[in-house]
Structures are given as structure tokens and as C-alpha cells.
Amino acid sequence: MKESNLTNKLQKIDKETFQQDLIDWFHTQKRTLPWREDQDPYKVWVSEIMLQQTKVDTVIPYFNRFIEKFPTAEELAKAEEQEVLKAWEGLGYYSRARNLQHAVREVSTRYEGKVPNDPKRLSALKGVGPYTTGAILSIAYGIPEPAVDGNVMRVLSRILMIEEDIAKASTRRIFEMAVRKLISHEDPSGFNQGLMELGALVCTPKSPACMLCPVQSHCQAFHHGTELAYPVKTKAKKQKKLPYFTCVLQDNQGRFFIEQRPDEGLLANMWQFPMALKQNVDEDHLATWVEQKFQVTIKEEETLPMIKHIFSHVIWELDVRLFLVENEGISSEQPSFLPLDKITEYPFPVPYQKLIDYLREHSR
Fold first, then answer.
1. Which terminus has fewer CB within 10 Å in the chain: N or C?
2. 321 to each of 97, 112, 244, 328, 345, how far by Cα in Å?
3. Which of 265, 249, 264, 277 is nearest to 343 (CA)?
4. Cα Rg for the chain, rounded, in angstroms?
């Protein structure tokens, strides 16, 4: 969309009335959320990172526990990565936690623990993209910067009847330009949060509550009866399925073997039970693979319930096998074999938390 076309659409909006209607609604109808109790930039930052790809109700208990454990940027900067991953355990998208700690350490060393209020410095921090930059600056510092997330794009695509595909990265610039033109300079925090809250509570994807919308009179799609045609979005690619064997090795002392994932890629540095892609190891040779790889002797084998876990871009299908083994090659003095009560001290991805719960109930 050319800037002139966007300008024409924006000219149909009474900007001051739109701002007031939205901000008044937000301040009277906003949800009570723990990160709204004050405007601490660090807390705003943590909440916005947690809320990426994750629902508000899911985030609330994690946020409370995280802030209790790491109440300041300095405390998070000093923490061990495994401690941070454990606090994040179950929330998913663990690179968010690693990037957050990396960025907080930079804030601690370069900016004396104070979150920058400058767009250039803030956006240069690891994991802080345009949306997070705008959210922190507007909510914590009252600076009129756009904070465009999926809710904001949905709301504005209907209000302005924007036809561009929101699945394309280039489209975000259109919405950022629109927010820069519309945002209140008196209350940028209320304006940006108002757009987000409107998208979350009223202007929802499938059944928007248009009759309850505080900015209904400004909405071009509503007036044309086409609100469900927006936003325009191409379908996402189908998720790739990855079938694995998950091998639970239990020794004669009732301990289980765990290993750490690589320090890069999906679920980096977290812990797991050994995994083998089915395309690399077939069922007939799985026991041999286990014995050779881990230098153990298998005494018994049992099939446990399958586990399916959906990530944003892949689906894990875990065919879980329990092997009762004699521990020969791996010294029992090493921490690889641990009792269940010790295993829970390590950060595990969600599918293995489910498996640990099962083992706790059914282990011999």
C-alpha cells in the first residue's frame, strides 16, 4: 500500500475522537493484570516477552513466579541460565528466556541496570524487536512509539479496511505508519494498550463483538458489513511431523538416564530422555542402538503411552520405550542417571514433563 492510500484511509477517521473513545474504554474496562500494577520497564519487558505466542491466562502465574525469583534486571542478569530455563519451564519458546537474559546482562553492564528509553539502544538488545521496543517505550516511558502485534493488526485492518496480507513481514510497516499517525501523544500507553486489549476482548478473530466496540463508529469494515473479511492472511504452511523413539533408560537402582540438548536450536540447553528419529533407527534395531550408544545391557523392554506435542512449526510424535538396563559403560557416579526427585530440578520441555509425571505414577 502506498503511503498516499493509507493517508486517504486515515483522513476518514476523526483522530481526536478515536483516541478518546479508545483510551476512555481502556481505562474503564481493562483487565487487572500483574504487569499493569506499575510501569516498571523491566516488568513490562518480561511480560511482553512472555506474552509472545502465549495466552494471557497462561502467562500470569509464570510472570508472578518469575518476578518473585528475579525481581530486578540485576537479579536476572546474575542468575545461572539453567535456573532461568527452569523458571520458564512449560512456557515454551525457550529462546525467549535465553535472549531475555542475554539482553538483561547487557543492560546491567552497559546501562547500569536501567532499561534504555531510546528506540535505537533498546531495539539493539537481543530478542527486542519492533513490537517489544514500542511496547516498553510507550507503556513504561510514555513515548509515542507504535507497538504492532497481531491484535493491533486485526483491529486496524478492520477500522481502515487494509487489504494487505498480514502474513507478510513487509505489511507490518503499513500498520506501524498507521499507528504513528493515530497514536495519542498525551497517553500513548493507554492508546497502544487499548488497541491490544480491544483485539483481545472485543475485536476477536472469528466473532467480533461489534455492538460492544467503543470505536465502532470509526470502523470502516463495520459500516460496510465486511469485518469478517479482515484481516487478510494467507494460510500458514502445514506443520512438519517428526516421529521419534524416546528411550527411557532405568538402571537397577531405579534411576533414569537424562542428557542435555545442544546449546543451539530448538529447546537449546534443556534436558531430555534420549531420542532417535525413526528415519535413522528402525524398531528392529532400536535396542541394539541403545546398547551400543550408551554402553548398557538391556534386561527388559516396555512400551509406554505415546506422546504428541505440537510446537509452532513441528509436531513431535514420541514413541516411548522403557528399557531396564545394567549400567556398564556410564559410571553410576556420573549425574547422567538420577532418581526422579532429582530429575525435576532440571529444566525439561513440556512433553518430557508429561513423561516424568507418568514415570512418577508408574515407575517400578
1. C
2. 31, 50, 11, 20, 23
3. 249
4. 25
Three cell numbers, residue 38: 506499575
- Residue 42's nearest CA partner among 95, 108, 89 is 108
Residues 225, 231, 237, 241: is their CA dihedral positive or negative?
negative
* Confidence (pTM): 0.82
| Residues near 140 by beta carbon (within 8 Å), at least 6 away in sequence | 39, 40, 41, 44, 45, 115, 117
DSSP string, 128-157: --HHHHHHHHHHHH--------HHHHHHHH
Active site residue 48: yes
Backbone angles phi, psi at 165, to 5 degrees: -70, 115
Taking only the tens place, the pLDDT of each residue in 5-61 is 888 889 989 999 999 999 999 999 999 999 999 999 999 999 999 999 889 999 999
- Residue 150 CA to residue 161 CA, distance in Å, equals 15
Catalytic position from the list 3, 16, 48, 145: 48
Contact 232, 157 (CB under 8 A): yes
- What one-character DSSP code corresponds to residue 333? T
What distance in Å separates the CA atoms of residue 107 and residue 271, rounded to the nearest whole number? 28
Which three cell numbers mark 124? 539493539
At 296, the amino acid letter reads: V
Q: Tens digit of pLDDT for each residue in 144-176? A: 999 999 999 999 999 999 999 998 888 999 999
Helix axis angle for 81-88 and 56-69, nearest 10°, is 150
Q: Using the 8-state DSSP alphabet, how is residue 252 labeled?
A: T
Q: What is the DSSP letter of 115?
A: P
d(CA 112, CA 73): 10
Bridge partners, 272 (sequence order) = 259
Question: Widest CA span of the chain, in angstroms?
Answer: 76
Cβ within 8 Å of residue 128, ≥6 positions away: 45, 103, 122, 136
Task: Report how far apart, in Å, the C-alpha atoms of 235 and of each of 175, 226, 238, 288 are.
Answer: 20, 19, 9, 43
| Count of Cβ atoms closer than 10 Å to residue 18 Cβ | 20
Grid coordinates of 324: 531396564
